Amino acid sequence: MSERIALCPGSFDPVTNGHVGIIRRSLRLFDRVVVAVTVNPSKKSLFTLEERMQFIKESFPNEPRLSVQSLEGLLAIEASKLGAVALVRGLRASRDFEYELQMAHMNRHLTSQLETVFLATEASGSYVSSSLVCEVARLGGDISALVPAHVAKALTARLSGDH
After folding, report:
1. Which of the following is catalytic: 4, 24, 65, 92?
2. Which entry of 43, 44, 95, 163 is annotated as an active-site residue?
3. Residue 43 is a catalytic residue
4. Could you tell me if 102 and 90 are in contact, meaning their C-beta atoms sit under 8 angstroms apart?
5. Would you state the pLDDT for residue 163?
6. 11 is catalytic
7. Tell me: the pLDDT tens digits for 102-136?
8. 11, 26, 59, 130: which one is catalytic?
9. Cβ burial, residue 140 (10 Å; 0-12/13-18/19+)
10. Active-site hit among 11, 19, 25, 59
11. Active site includes 94?
């Protein structure tokens, strides 16, 4: 049987504990998971592509079945090049579903062998988004339960200008 590869895409600016949970659960379902950190030139990121990739690597220091790479271009095409059988997408609430379903249909149109697997986030983090974490941190709130410790440290330093 061939290796079952999943692609887990996102901007991860920054990676949250919700992202980490979805990636960890993906590793239980697939032989290998490729985390694709997306590049969106029209969006101003707080962290560089390299920093975002490093945050994910540091969140999974001893996981040989996980790789992290950048992604620029059509997700379905890149997934096909990697031999991925599925895209993994996290759903926080019903508002995510409409958009994600539309994307799943388009990706399936582009690459008919590619499935999209939706994983519901843990209920405790269903309200968390990267942008909300940044806003809370910017206003001095405690984000320690929302992101990995190394990300909280980097985010606090970035927002205070100590980078």
Report:
1. 92
2. 43
3. yes
4. no
5. 52
6. no
7. 999 999 999 999 999 999 988 777 888 899 999 99
8. 130
9. exposed
10. 19
11. no
C-alpha–C-alpha distance, residues 53 and 15, integer Å = 9
Element of type H or E holding 36: strand 32-38
Are 37 and 70 in contact by the 8 Å Cβ rule? The answer is: yes
| Domain 5-124 falls under CATH 3.40.50.620 | yes
Q: Per residue in 6-24, pLDDT tens?
A: 999 999 999 999 999 999 9
54 Cβ partners below 8 Å, 6+ apart? Answer: none
Per domain, the residue ranges of the chain are: 5-124
d(CA 117, CA 52): 23
Verify whether residue 59 is a known catalytic residue.
Answer: no
Q: Which residue has the tokens 């410790």?
A: 149
Alpha carbon dihedral 25, 108, 43, 55, in 10-degree steps, equals 20
